[in-house]
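>> received
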Amino acid sequence: MKAWTHFVISLIVGVFLTSGFAHAGLLDNFAGQSGKIDIAGGTAHIPVMTEAAKRIMTANPGIRINIEGGGTGVGVQKAGEGLVDIGNTGRALSEDEIAKYGLVSFAFAVDGVTVVVNPANAVADLSAAQVQDIFSGKITNWKEVGGADALINLYSRDEASGTREVFWGKMLKKGAIADSANIVASNGAMKVAVSQDAGAIGYMSIGFVDASVKAPTLDGIEPSQDNAKSGTYKVARKLYMNTKGQPQGLVKLFIDYVTSSECTDIIAKAGYIPLQ
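>> returned
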C-alpha cells in the first residue's frame, strides 16, 4: 500500500445549490463577501471543515475555501509562517509555538483517540499495559494477548501528528514506539492500512472509526466519544483552529460559524462532540 503523504480538498461551488443550507443565521454574514480562505493541518478536522465550507460556498459562490491535510505540525508551521489563514491542530499549542508565531487558538470539538485492529482480529479488549507493551515491541504476537498465533504489525503516525502526540502521551505515557512501526500520514491512511492487514494494530481519531476497522475496549471501557467527553475514556483531546493573531474578515466569519451552534450537527455527524 502506498502511504498517503498528504491530500488536498479544494471545494469550489458554482451553480449547484443544496437545499437546507441557505437558512437564516450566521451564513447570512457571508452575503456579499468574496475571496478565499486557505486551511491546512490536522486530518481529523477535514470532515468538519469540508462540510462547513460546502455550506458557506453554496450560500455564496463568490467565496472559495481550500482545505489541505498534512497533520498538526503542518498546521502550526503554515499558519505561523502566513502560508495559510487557518492551521488546524489536534492538540493545544505549546507555549513555544505561541511565542514563536503569535498564534491564537479556537477549540470546536472533543475527540477521542483509540487503538484500532483489523475486523478479523478476535481480540476485543486490551489493557493499557498491553497496548504499551505492543507499541514498544515487547509483545510481538497476538497470542500473547488472547488472539491468534500471528505476528503483530505496528502502524503509527509521524511526530508532526496531533493524534500521535495524544496517543503517545495519554495511552503510551510517553513510552517508546518500536522502530519497526509502519508510519502513515493521516487518520484516513491509518484506516486503510489497518483494514487491509489482518495482523495490524494502529490508532486513530474515534471520529474516523467505521466498520472497516475494529476499536477494542480499553480495560473494559468502550472508546466512544460520549465516554471521552465524560472523562470515562481518558485518551481524548480537543480539536483546534489556529490563526496568526486575531482573525479578521472572512477568516473570522468562518471561525465564528464553525464554533457556533449552527455547526453542531456537522461536528456530531463527523463523529465528534461539539463544545457548544
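>> The chain has a mean pLDDT of 91.
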